[in-house]
Structures are given as C-alpha cells and as structure tokens.
C-alpha cells in the first residue's frame, strides 16, 4: 500500500505544479485552491508512504516523478522546449527512480 500512496502523492505533486502554472501568481482563486489542496494531499500521502518506506528513497522518487511529469507536461501542453539533451537527462532521472525502487532491500 505504501507504493500506491507514493505514486498518488507524486501524481498530486504534478497536479499542484500544473495548478501553479494557471494560478497567475495566486491571483486566480480556483487554480490557487487546487494547488493548495493538491500540495496538502500530496504531502499527506507521502507521509503515509513513509510509514513503510525509507525516507530518502521515497522522497527522491516522489520528487523525481513530479519532475519528469512536469517537464513532460510543460513540453506537451505549454510548448516548453525539449531538446535531446533534456530528454537524455530525463531518461537518467527515470533510470535513477527505477534504480532506487528496485534497490530497496527485499525488492518489495
């Protein structure tokens, strides 16, 4: 269950970042409220995941998934540049996330 909490927390981290893009410096109510709610829910789920997962590994995976998700969302929806070098570094991030996940003792 801890891994489900962690993945949901990471998805909410992405939602928070997207809401921040739309909140126009905290001047738009709905995106601002979504950003705050997503952030709080994300941290809550991360805390639940940390009951069973090592803190450093879980935090790195949480932020890594959020980073990759927001870079890809920025490229797809907002036209952010995605040169080959950035794609390469995203791939390294994904490999690092997978490596952390599967290097957990017992592979659980």
Automatic annotation (TrEMBL):
SUPFAM superfamilies: Multidrug resistance efflux transporter EmrE. One of its GO terms (biological process) is xenobiotic detoxification by transmembrane export across the plasma membrane. Its main location: membrane. It is a multi-pass membrane protein. It holds the Pfam family Multi_Drug_Res. The chain crosses the membrane at residues 29-50, 57-78, 84-102. It is found in: Cell membrane. One of its GO terms (molecular function) is transmembrane transporter activity. GO terms for cellular component: plasma membrane. Keywords: Cell membrane, Membrane, Transmembrane, Transmembrane helix, Transport. Belongs to the drug/metabolite transporter (DMT) superfamily. Small multidrug resistance (SMR) (TC 2.A.7.1) family. Gdx/SugE subfamily. This is Guanidinium exporter. It comes from Pandoraea faecigallinarum.
